[in-house]
Amino acid sequence: MIPAVRAIARAAMAARPVPLADVQARADLLARFDRRYLVPVEVFAAVAAELTDRRRPDGPFAALCINGRRWFRYRSVHYDTPDLRSFHDHRLGRPLRYKVRERLYEDTGERQFEIKLQGRRGETVKHRRPLLPGAPALGPAPRGFLTAVLDRTYGIAAPTDLDRSLETDYTRATFVADGQRITCDAALFCRDLASGRTVRADGGLVLVETRSTGRPTEADRLLRGHGVHAAAFSRYCGGLSALRPDLAAGQWRPAVRTAFPAAA
Fold first, then answer.
1. For the chain, does the N or the C end have fewer beta carbons within 10 angstroms?
2. How many Cβ atoms from other residues are within 10 Å of residue 243's Cβ?
3. Percent of the chain with pLDDT over 70
4. How far apart are the first and last CA of the chain?
5. Residue 158 carries which DSSP code?
């Protein structure tokens, strides 16, 4: 087993399990502030042990559990225009930026069409709707949903030339406390859907994302205490930067080199 997968599995098994309904009630966080970290497995294990310790004063973080499983396989297909408008809008930090993707929860078969936007305060705002089995991700209903969200939020038209850009695959465990959620991803694998090229992230790193309504969480403070600082990184932009050397990685370059040492 890949070391990062083993680390998140052990952490999830050590935590108290909670069902999806409890996670959504305690920390749904469709509008939230995100901070991402590339964490060596040894540091991750130490931080996870502190967060899930049942003697924790504010109560331990619990692990999402569905049908007895505590870590799950995710696959996402990201959509962009031929000139990669979404990628470059994020690279340049433009205020009216968004990402469009289809997410498949491989262990349950559930599919979601998702739009991630930049809010007025710099927060991430997610909009999503279910996709029926076999339904095209960019069929009339999802395209209408995208049009409505972009018009209502930004007052802009939706692009008509979206196409499949990048596929990502990874294993995730999720930990939750009141108003706080931590996602922990391992074994990230990216495929450029234009060229077919692939790249795999360092198996000794866990991609940790802390989510809250504002202030840094206890996980952020613990990670900083271990000398790990937030990284400018996302699965879509980082993966595409690693797969296409001609793209200017910009602010993501240090994190891309860390996450994908083979590509670097």
1. N
2. 21
3. 96
4. 24
5. P
Contact 180, 217 (CB under 8 A): yes
Map residue 63 onto helix, strand or coil: strand
* β partners of residue 205: 40
Instruction: Tell me which amino acid residue 193 is.
Output: L
Q: Which domains does the chain have, with CATH numbers?
A: 3-259 (2.40.320.10)
CA dist., res. 42 & res. 12, Å (int)? 15
Reported pTM? 0.91
Chain segment 91-101, per-residue pLDDT in tens = 888 889 999 99
Q: How far apart are CA 221 and CA 215, in angstroms?
A: 11
Strand 16-18 relative to strand 62-64, pairing: parallel
List alpha helices for the chain, DSSP H: 3-14, 20-27, 41-51, 85-91, 140-153, 218-225, 235-243, 253-259
Angle 112-86-239 from CA coordinates, rounded to 5°: 75
Structure tokens at 40: 């060596």
* Cβ–Cβ under 8 Å, residues 193 and 165: yes
